[in-house]
Amino acid sequence: MNPDNQNTEAEKTRLSMAARIARLDEKPQENPATEASTSTADPIDAIGADDRFASIVPDEFSTPPAEDGPLQDAPVPAEGAYEAKGRPKRRYRKLWLIPVVLVALLAAAYGGGVYYFNEHCLPNTMVDGADVSGMTKSEVAASIESQVADYVISVTGDGVDLNLTASDLSLGYDGEAYAANVMSRTSAWQWPLEISGSRSYTLQKTIKYDSDKVVSALAPFVEQSRSTAEKTAKEATVTYDSASKAFVLQIDGDTSSLDGDAAAAKVCSALDALQTTVELGDDCMNTGYDFSSFVVKANSCLSAAPTLTLAGTTVAEIGADQIASWLKVGNDLGIEIDSAAVTAWCKGDLSKACDTVGTSRTYTRADGQTFTVAGGEYGWNIDGASTADKIISALEGGQKTIIEIPTLSKGETWVLGGQDWGKRYIDIDLSEQHARMYDDSGSLIWESDVVTGDTTEDHATPTGVYTMNSNRASDNVELRGEIDASTGEPEYISYVDYWMPFIGNSYALHDASWRSSFGGTIYCGNGSHGCVNLPVDKAAELWNLCRVGDTVVVHN
Hints:
With 556 residues, the protein is α+β, with helices and mostly antiparallel strands. The protein is built from 17 helices and 28 strands.
């Protein structure tokens, strides 16, 4: 065989062996019989130990195989063969494990320190003068919370005398927050750098307590103060002094009371600073009931006493004494005007002083004769309810005013006890049995004898001052008497041409064609049922002269 070919084949064999060794290093053979040994022994050391490695021994240590033939058994290489080829022994290849182990130990120690100092204070740590070295968060919290266990605060003033202990209020430092603040001052991750040093902190301590218990402790004093103030207020009076014509306040005691919210806030502020005493003052008191506003309002009503007029004539000056009788204290201790009392006065005393309807009035007729007449529906009649409303509004406004009294009816001019109708009127004299009409100037423009109601049959014509109304009619007006109970028919049925009523539609001046004479004493025994009978011609004349709204005066 050619030597060059031999060398070439040897080289191929060596390369084939190296590749196989590499494959064995990457993935051992899955042979159960050798699994235990391959897991603990170096495969390089095992070369030659069993038949599996016989074929991969370098050619320098074995007989080259025959061309195209199987590998031949080879002897074990001599000691020192690997060193000759530059391959290190096993003891030098494992030195890299030493630094790895050291790094792992250092990392474990560092991690353990981080874990420990994350929950414990570093050595040589002073907080607010106390040594907390090595303490846990809970131990630091317990230490600070115990510092106020014996705390007591004394609360006085505004009727309060009270001692409150820490346990009464669930008071103490916020230990958790304090401990968290202590632990936040250092970093557990930097413990190797800080463990040999020392540190000292002064921290803000936060007090915690149950504010609802403060309110509850003050509640009895607040209630007592309020009750006393209300009793004093109820017993207070505002009276009218007729001598000075003014209202004055009479009160025995103070109506201010303890303000529970303000008192609790002041006590809590003292607790925040751990003060041992706190005195409540005016800033913790309600202002109480203000009676001055009532007095001012009442006196302003007196000064607003209005002047009352009727038809431009002053009829009343309301005095302070009168107004004082209308004022009263309301449920809210404010001024109230008794509207019912004002209305009663307007419909009573004021009406008597102003109303003329139905009252006795004395007047002088144009012929010089003087008569007194009472009754009737004509004249002045004030509206008491509306007048009361105006008076109340004036008093509430506090400004003196003049009030024109509203009326339900009115006369020509207002005069009490005298002629309040104008110069134009119809005068019916029952004694003379004669009627007259005067015009706007007071001149006589019509007159006639009449027959009035039969006084013997209780049909007398009503006296008084009246007004001719809109039932006025003419041409065949039917008159019916009262229904006769025995027959069910009217006592009479008559027809007239001129109907001039002055009391509803029952009493009127009208023609009486069935009579042949008028005047004298005919009305006594042969009079009318109450109407004023006229001759037909005189009735026609009067019809043409009178009108709705004319005053009719009937007198004796």
